[in-house]
């Protein structure tokens, strides 16, 4: 009987350990997935660098710019230029325009990705408005820059040889206000098509 009781205690301890381990993994999965995406470019996640490469290839790439806002974000948000053609390794500078048509201050945060997703590991940003929270006062209009390049290593990837167009896409979301309350407004999702 005592032997049966020891087995039950051991089984209960194993099951509790498995549950605790699963809960721990669920909390760790988001940062681990984020790290995986940043390292590999998976899901169109772009890379970040301090300086541009010193190699510029003859290969040209067209970069298209896309802008979106979440349903709650009332800003007008669009790329200033819809596309540009540049050489791989060359530093590009593009601007997105944001306008707050409301009568109150609104904070926003942008998420981003590139398509096709397989080139995310080669699209590198040097500076971007998406790295910090943006604040627009009532009626304020701003041009927000993004400095970037396409890494010359793309030329060594046989799966990316046919890529001639990369689309950089941003979506702005409303951030929480200083007091922790979310600033919101009724607005439909707005999108600017890249033509």
- Main sheet properties: 6 strands, mixed
CATH superfamily (homologous) name of the largest domain: Ctag/Cox11
Mean pLDDT: 79
Number of helices: 1
CATH architecture of the largest domain: Sandwich
* Low-pLDDT residue spans: 29-45, 178-195
Strand content: 35-45%
Assembly type:
single chain
The total domain count is 2
Shape: flat
| CA(first)-CA(last) distance | 77 Å
Please compute the radius of gyration using only Cα atoms: 23 Å
Helix content: 10-25%
- At the first level of CATH, the class of the largest domain is Mainly Beta
User: SSE string, helix = H, strand = E?
Assistant: HEEEEEEEEEEE
Q: Which fold name corresponds to the CATH topology of the largest domain?
A: Ctag/Cox11 (Pfam 04442)
List how many beta strands DSSP finds. 11
Write the layout of secondary structure elements.
Layout: H1 2-40, E1 47-48, E2 60-69, E3 76-79, E4 83-87, E5 92-99, E6 106-115, E7 123-128, E8 134-136, E9 141-150, E10 165-174, E11 191-192
Parallel strand pairs: 1-7, 2-10
Antiparallel strand pairs: 2-4, 2-11, 3-5, 5-9, 6-8, 6-10, 7-9
Question: Key features?
Answer:
195 residues; Ctag/Cox11 (Pfam 04442); five-stranded mixed beta sheet; 1 helix; disordered C terminus
């Amino acid at each position: 009987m005592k032997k049966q009781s020891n087995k039950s205690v051991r089984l209960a301890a194993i099951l509790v350990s498995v549950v605790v381990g699963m809960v721990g993994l669920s909390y760790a999965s988001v940062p681990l997935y984020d790290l995986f995406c940043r390292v590999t470019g998976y899901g169109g996640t772009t890379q970040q660098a301090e300086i541009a490469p010193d190699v510029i290839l003859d290969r040209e790439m067209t970069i298209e710019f896309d802008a979106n806002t979440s349903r709650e974000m009332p800003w007008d948000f669009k790329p200033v230029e819809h596309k540009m053609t540049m050489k791989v390794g060359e530093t590009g500078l593009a601007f997105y325009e944001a306008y707050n048509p409301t009568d109150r201050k609104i904070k926003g945060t942008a998420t981003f990705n590139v398509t096709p997703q397989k080139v995310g590991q080669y699209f590198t940003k040097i500076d971007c408005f998406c790295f910090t929270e943006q604040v627009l006062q009532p009626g304020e209009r701003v041009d927000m820059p993004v400095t970037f390049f396409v890494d010359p290593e793309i030329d060594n990837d046989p799966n990316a040889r046919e890529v001639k167009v990369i689309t950089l896409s941003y979506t702005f979301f409303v951030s929480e206000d200083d007091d922790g309350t979310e600033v919101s407004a009724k607005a439909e999702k707005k999108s600017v098509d890249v033509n």
